[in-house]
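Lab channel / #folding
Pinned by the channel admin:
"Please post every new chain as: sequence first, then the C-alpha cells as a reply. Keep commentary short and put observations after the output so the thread stays searchable."

First post following the new format, from NK:
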Amino acid sequence: MHVTTRGGIFTRAFGTPPRDGEPTVVLVHGLGLSGRYFVPLARRLAAQGARVLVPDLPGNARSRGAAGRAPTVAEHARALAHWHRQHSLGPVLLVANSVGCQVAAALAARHPDMVSRLVLVGPALDPAVPAWRQCALLIKDAPREPLRLFGIAVSDYLVTGLPRCAAEYRHALRDAAWSFEAHLEQVHAPTLVVRGEGDPLASPSWTRRVASLVGDGRTAEIPGAAHAAHYSAPDAMATLIQKFTADGPGGPA
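Reply from TO:
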C-alpha cells in the first residue's frame, strides 16, 4: 500500500496499474468513517491483480481538512468526480458501503462515463424506515460486527468529529428521502447489490428494491456477515466481485 493526497483527499492505493481494458477499483466508505475498514478487501482485490484506490471522502477522517463543514451527499459525489479527474481514471468499478452507496449512486447517475460497474454493499438508507429506527438498527448491528471494526469506527468518528457525523446523517436522510431512488433509476451500469445475511439495516426487501431500480441489477447475500460484509468476509466479497466483473450485462441474479 502507498498513500497520496490530492486536493486534500487522502487516498490509499493497492496493486499495480491495470492492464488495458481492466478498470481501476474504487472503494467508497460510509458515513463519518475512513477507508481503513476497506483495507482487507482492497488487499484481496489487489492480490487478484486489480488496481484499488480507497479515498477518505472530504470532511471525513484524514480528509477532514478538505471541507470546512460536513458535505452533503451531492457534494461528496461532486468531490469524488473531481478526484476521479485528478487521478486521470477511466471508467471504474465502484464499490460502496452503507451511506457511501448514496454517494456512489449520485456519481454513477450524474457521471455515467466514470463508472463501468457498481457494487453496493449494505445500501443505506431505506427511506421507508424512520430516522430513529435507522439509529436503533445501527446499534443492533454493532455486536454482529468484528470487535476490531468497532475500534476502527470509533476512532474514525472521533477524528471526523461527532457534530460532523450528525450533520452528515441529516444530509443522508434528506438524500434518501428525495434523491437516492431517483439516482438509482438513472444508473445503467451493471450493478450488484450485496447484503450480509445478518445485516439489520439493509433488509432483503430493500436490497431487492435497490437492485430493481437500476437498469441492470442483481443481488447477492453473504452468510455469516452483517452490515460491513466487506470487512468481516473480505474473501467472500472479493470472490463475488470477481465473478460479477466476469459476468456480462444481464448476468445471473
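NK: The chain has a mean pLDDT of 94.
TO: also worth noting, The radius of gyration is 16 Å.
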